[in-house]
Design brief:
It contains nine helices and 13 strands. By secondary structure, it is of the alpha+beta class. The structure holds (R)-mevalonate. The site of (R)-mevalonate (MEV) has 14 residues, from α4 and α5.
Amino acid sequence: MGVIASAPAKIILFGEHFVVYGEPAIVTAIDKRAHVTAELRKDKRIYIRSPDLKASGYFSQKNHFQAEQGGQEARPKLEPIKIAVQKILALSKEENGVNIDVQSNIPVAAGLGSSAAVAAATGTAVSQLLGIEISKEDVFRIAYEAERFVHGTPSGIDPAISTHGGVLLFCKDKGFTPLNVKEDIPLVVGDTGIERSTGEMVSGVRQRRERYPSIVNPIIKSGGKVALRAAKALETGDLNALGELMNINHAMLSAIGVSNEFLDRLVYSARKAGALGAKLTGAGGGGCMVALSPPDKLKQVVDAIKLEGGVAFVARKTNEGVRIEG
Ligand code: MEV
């Protein structure tokens, strides 16, 4: 018998990239989830299958990898999931092998936290399968380790939200505070369909900061201030202020070099269609943007993004972090 766990995707509303340098950021869990099924194997191998990543294969106890689908590229894609599995297997007295099957409706490499959601769900499913009790803090740490493989210096915002859900004011080193958001925050996501590497985007910002510290550091600091002001607007339900702050945040992300023409076009088309604000979300360079839309303009905003060539969908916040299904 298998165990199924799921964890949510996320949208960073304020402060991506700046959060890597210790500034606060705001992130919400949304109603798209990764589902992971874990089953015991008769041998000691770890078999992982992820149709989204177009990859599957076997890791032996000695860490040899044999691809079943995806060839050479399968290993780096599946490695973070294997790291999450191994962290749990190491807590067990017995030596076990497991099958991991990933089913997810979160777009991959698009800034919506797919890899952290899969890692959090994997850790939770395998621990339940083996009867090992772990806390949410443990799940966070396991997903964080997996995320470190994806890119070297993660702030931890993605593992935190896929573990805990809700809307969080997150600060690397200081942890997070759940925000009390009573209002519906109607969001439209526009996906450019361009996959990009978070690691490369983070390293591009690091280089620009090293070249122009006296210019980039104040932008990073202001990014933190935008997030703190936005936390107030979220808690008081001031959607107009939120929208304006999203626009400011997008301009700052452009300034540090992580937007591109396609993202800008989606952002501007959403604003023109009546969004209160719009910005890229996640690492940038491709991936997704997000627009805050008045409820009666949702359809127009979705249509405008589609007309500009993006894939658009409405996203709702969810309080549900990682959980066992059924
Ligand atoms: C990626 O979802 C968000 C970044 O700020 C990187 C991180 O915080 O680890 C770009």
